Amino acid sequence: MKKLFPILTFLAVALISLTMAGFAYFATQEASRIKFQATVDDAVNRIESRIDLHLSLLRSTQALFDARNGQVTRNEFKAYFNALDVDGNFAGLRGIGFLKLIRTGDEAVAERAIKQEYGIDRVIYPATTQQWRTPIVLFEPLEERNLSSVGYDMFTEDARRAAIEAAMADDEQHASGRVLLGQQTGAEQTFPGFLVFVRLNIDTAPDAVDAATSSTAGFLYAAFRAGDLFRVALRRMPLLPVNVEIYDQTANSDSLLFRSETPPVEGIGNRLLDTRKITVAGRQWVLEFRPTSAFSPPSSRAIPIMLGLFGLLLAGAIALVARYQERAYDAVAQLHETTEKSLLEKDLMLQEMKHRIKNLITRVLAIARQTASGATDVKEFSDSFAARLQAMAASQDMLTRSRWQKADLGDLLRIELGQVFGKELPRDLLSGPQVLLDETATQALGLTFHELATNALKYGEAGNAVGALKVDWKTERLDRERVLVLNWRESGQTGLEAPTRTGFGTKLIDMNITRELNGTIERKFKPNGLQVEIRIPLK
């Protein structure tokens, strides 16, 4: 659990940080949405205000005709229109006109009115099977290019007819659907727009109109170019960072009235889409608003990202601190363990030094006795004894050097046995393949062989005849490991029994084999000698 603590800490802090970054992100999006909604509210107000201004013009025109009981001449109508200063005050207005309501078959009534006002012979067009006809008999501004529109029957076109029929039923204004202005006059360029109609009542209706609508003389209408109208409404300072698409009733390409020239910004354009619906002269429009590149969110989108990255960095820093703290605790525990082990090893080394000094003295005395027993005079004894002491020193020096490199098992045995017994070893005393030992195995086995040889020197027949000792070894494979199997055999003894007390040398041997080398040692005290089997894994 302690090792998982840094990971759990990182996950917990990272989760909290990412959650906070998520909340910040959604808060940023909501703030952007609210700000954009306020901008859209402003844009809708501008559009509605501009449309109301234009529709008020139609109401004032209706008041003019009501005041004259519908008897307004072309010149009066033209003077009235010119006084309005349409270009300066009513941008987007295509013109204002009057439609005369007649029955189909009574076209001559309208044609006489056109002849009277414009001095031209004009046949009402196009032909129709409808019950009613509503030709244009007055229109301003009437320029040369649109003079042909006089006499055009708007009741023959579906979008215009639907609005006129609605205006027949009441005195309210009624807007048409999307129309292409200039199409009926054969103009080279057409503009999407709409028309608004209102019924004109007079005190005495003409004979051509039946009693049910006897008070309706015709319809006043205003034609609007949608592009000019909405551009003027949206260009009022300050400029709004919105892209708007305005549709008649449903949002599709056939009903598109207007689309802003500035495109919406990619990315957040569709995400902040705001759809509004307004009613213009009894007809519903759909307005879709999207932000442009000029729209600036109230708070940067980089804040949640920075918050998330900062949280991850903080989580990583806390996890590293926890990890280092854990390592510090482990280091303290390891230091404590190492200190205790060092104290134990120090005590063991002191005991080993005492023991080896005693053994060294024993070996020196044994060599002295053996040398003296075979010497004929003092000089021979002195030379032989000094040579054997030098051999012991050389062997000890070789053993010391072997601790820092790979050592051969056979060489190690020869050094240890040679320095203990102090004489030439028989060739058949050691037998086995070449086995290379690492530093740990060399140190542990060197002490083991030294103790075994010293005990053999002290208590066994090998002290008198080295031939009584045989050492052989081999390697075996156990599962995926190589195992060294070494047999130490001493012979020539009689009445050998297991000791009743375990000395320091025996403890040292067992500790070297079992603890240092993870091996096993088995002693067999037979009547004719000692047999020791050592098994250790080889790296």
Give a structural overview.
With 539 residues, this protein is of the alpha+beta class. The protein has two domains: 1-345, Beta-Lactamase; 387-538, Heat Shock Protein 90, CATH 3.30.565. Helix content is 47%, strand content 21%. It contains eleven helices and 19 strands. It has helices at residues 5-67, 74-83, 86-89, 107-118, 158-169, 226-234, 302-374, 378-402, 409-421, 439-459, 504-516, and strands spanning 93-100, 102-103, 132-133, 136-140, 174-175, 179-181, 191-201, 216-225, 242-248, 256-259, 274-280, 283-291, 407-408, 430-431, 436-437, 469-478, 481-490, 520-526, 529-538. Helix 1 packs across helix 6 (226-234) and helix 7 (302-374) packs antiparallel against helix 8 (378-402).
3D shape: rod-shaped
**Average pLDDT:** 81
**DSSP E strands, number:** 19
CATH architecture of the largest domain: 2-Layer Sandwich
Largest pleated sheet: 6 strands, antiparallel
Number of domains: 2
Helix content: 40-55%
Report the uncertain regions: 207-214
Please report the first level of CATH classification, the CATH class of the largest domain.
Alpha Beta
Instruction: Give the SSE string.
Output: HHHEEHEEHEEEEHEEEEHHEHEEHEEHEE
Main structural class? alpha+beta
